[in-house]
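User: Let's play a game. I give you a shape written as tokens, and you guess the letters that built it. Ready? Here's round one.
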């Protein structure tokens, strides 16, 4: 292709027409969304990030919300999972306590998360990614890295144009927008996707990497959170450019293994490969309550409901786990985590619940809890899950009954059959569930 690596040419993100001059609008369709970059056609690592994913899905499904501020999250005791860009203008941010979000934007529409719907939509988008390359590394339900190296012969287009086509396809077929970052490494591709959101498409080339990073804050480096940033500030380090002047030995002497990461990433050195479908470590669900709960009688039905949610996800993925993990957070935000390993892997709601309940009973000491979660880890495929229990005949009967219930729910919906624990239970408005295979998004 004659235009490859020629800085004089670019293309239109809307109609994909090749441009042959420096004018500001597309020569074919008049769009201002033009892409030009000296390395535009030579970069192959992409990062895709859906724009305000949960809120965008809700707006897509309810056009009346299109121009309204929308917050996805729990009730007054919950937190913001994500907010649309209209709400963000008013100061609403992800992970913000709900009461503060409503103070900042009192006219916002608050919607409880529908994780099953978001996971379903996320998988549709991910399949579109796999249509482009087998090297897709999901980071969460709504973002992933792609390596399009060597795919030009397949698509008859360089990666940048392929990703522009992908973004247009997602908007056309799914009804959502995505932002794309392209570079020569994962670190800079992810940084690029954060620019010009929503519907962004940014490029960071190898030749410009060091200069580009020099004036950026050290918090842009992966792993530099609030605590470590405070340490760097005490040492007088605030910009990546300052790190670029420091020797590897000095950084490692001061910060250990993290010093090596600071040295390499500050110089745009990142050799990590795009690893397709990283191994799932756990599947879990949790909920935050509107009011603190101390009573086992109140907590047990919620635990049962969460156990059923985790069970559905395990069964859908044909996996099972041997370790049951209970998570509790008290009113003073102290976290308790308890776990128990089973003799055999399980994917049954009954076993997950009964194991979790035995762990929960030991924690009932008058403490009032604001959050409850249950999860399964130590995962494997389900071919050895839940063998018949020749000792506990009732357990076997409950397993058979659960299989029958699953069939009815598969035909008539999840609420078609309920257990005595969950029947007529009013679910907390702030219920937020998480499947660790597809962590929630917060961009």
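Assistant: Ready! My guess for every position:
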């Amino acid at each position: 292709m004659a235009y490859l690596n020629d800085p004089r040419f670019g293309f239109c993100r809307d109609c994909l027409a090749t441009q042959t001059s420096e004018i500001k609008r597309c020569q074919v369709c008049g769009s201002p969304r033009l892409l030009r970059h000296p390395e535009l056609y030579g970069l192959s690592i992409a990062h895709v990030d859906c724009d305000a994913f949960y809120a965008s899905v809700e707006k897509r499904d309810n056009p009346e919300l299109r121009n309204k501020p929308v917050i996805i999250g729990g009730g007054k005791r919950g937190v913001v999972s994500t907010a649309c860009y209209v709400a963000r203008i008013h100061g609403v941010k992800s992970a913000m306590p709900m009461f503060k979000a409503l103070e900042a934007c009192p006219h916002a529409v608050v919607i409880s998360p529908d994780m099953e719907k978001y996971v379903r939509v996320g998988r549709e988008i991910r399949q579109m990614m796999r249509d482009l390359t087998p090297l897709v590394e999901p980071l969460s339900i709504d973002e992933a890295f792609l390596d399009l190296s060597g795919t030009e012969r397949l698509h008859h287009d360089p990666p940048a144009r392929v990703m522009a086509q992908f973004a247009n396809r997602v908007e056309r077929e799914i009804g959502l927008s995505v932002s794309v970052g392209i570079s020569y490494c994962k670190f800079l591709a992810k940084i690029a996707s954060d620019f010009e959101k929503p519907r962004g498409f940014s490029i960071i080339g190898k030749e410009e990497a060091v200069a580009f990073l020099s004036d950026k804050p050290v918090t842009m480096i992966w792993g530099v959170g609030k605590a470590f940033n405070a340490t760097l500030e005490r040492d007088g380090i605030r910009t990546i450019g300052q790190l670029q002047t420091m020797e590897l030995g000095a950084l490692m002497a001061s910060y250990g293994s993290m010093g090596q990461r600071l040295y390499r990433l500050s110089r745009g050195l990142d050799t990590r490969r795009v690893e397709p479908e990283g191994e799932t470590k756990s599947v879990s669900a949790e909920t935050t309550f509107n009011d603190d709960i101390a009573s086992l009688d109140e907590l047990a039905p919620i635990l049962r409901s969460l156990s059923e949610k985790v069970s559905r996800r395990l069964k859908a993925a044909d996996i099972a786990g041997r370790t049951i993990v209970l998570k509790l957070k008290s009113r003073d935000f102290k976290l308790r985590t308890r776990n128990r390993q089973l003799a055999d892997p399980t994917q049954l709601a009954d076993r997950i619940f009964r194991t979790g309940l035995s762990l929960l009973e030991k924690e009932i000491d008058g403490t009032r809890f604001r959050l409850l979660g249950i999860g399964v880890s130590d995962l494997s495929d389900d071919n050895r899950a839940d063998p018949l229990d020749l000792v506990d005949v009732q357990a076997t009967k409950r397993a058979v009954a659960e299989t029958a219930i699953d069939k009815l729910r598969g035909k008539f919906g999840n609420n078609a059959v309920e257990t005595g624990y969950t029947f007529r239970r009013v679910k907390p408005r702030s219920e937020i569930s998480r499947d660790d295979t597809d962590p929630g998004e917060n961009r």
